[in-house]
Amino acid sequence: MDIIENLSEELGEKEERIMELEKKLEEEKKEKKKYYLEHIVLQKVGKFLCAPELRQFCSVLETMDYFDDQFNDFGDDKYNMYILALETSLGIDRNELYDEDEIREAYQETPGFPDITDDVDEMVDFLEEQTGDCFHELNVDKPDGKRVWYNLK
User: Fold this and answer.
1) Side-chain-facing half-sphere of 114: CA atoms under 13 Å
2) How far is residue 121 from each of residues 102, 103, 139, 141, 150, measured CA to CA in Å?
3) Cα separations (Å) of 90 from 58, 61, 96, 98, 124?
4) Among 81, 87, 111, 121, which one has the highest count of C-beta atoms within 10 angstroms of its own C-beta?
5) Rounded Cα–Cα distance for residues 153 and 150 (Å)
6) Using an 8 Å Cβ cutoff, are 44 and 115 in contact?
7) Alpha carbon 39 to its chain's center
């Protein structure tokens, strides 16, 4: 009976160790993928910054469109790569980006907001009229499908 208990205990410990190793392997894969994607972004940004024909007279919006095209083949990673490229090339801070929920929140915090719409585009129009800011919708949605705007101020 002791032999069976010892073997069961050893098996349990080995199963625990296997689960720990699998978790560690998954974390390492994520870290390698993140490094790989960041490396690609930096290459694209470097190409953009070093090519006068690409950036000579580029506006913020043209730059956004350029990077939108650069990351089309990256699926769910496109949004994060796109945002990293904008941060690196234009100095755009993630805090300057508004998703649909943040637009609703800003709308409701604006004095005199009309409580008659659930349409985010109408909310953006109202915010622009009230604040004088200019919101530009990014071509790239968040991975959860939420639309995102940049406040051009």
Assistant:
1) 13
2) 13, 9, 15, 15, 14
3) 11, 11, 12, 17, 23
4) 81
5) 9
6) no
7) 16
Count the Cβ atoms, other than its own, within 10 Å of residue 148. Answer: 22
Amino acid, res. 82? Y
Residues in the chain: 153
Q: Looking at residue 62, what is its pLDDT?
A: 82
Retrieve residue 130's tokens. Answer: 């009230």
DSSP per residue over 127-143, as a string? HHHHH---EEE-SS--T
What predicted TM-score, i.e. pTM, was given to this entire model? Answer: 0.71
**Distance separating the N- and C-terminal Cα atoms of the chain:** 76
What's the pLDDT tens digit per position in 95-111?
Answer: 889 999 999 998 888 88
Say if residue 81's pLDDT is above 70.
yes
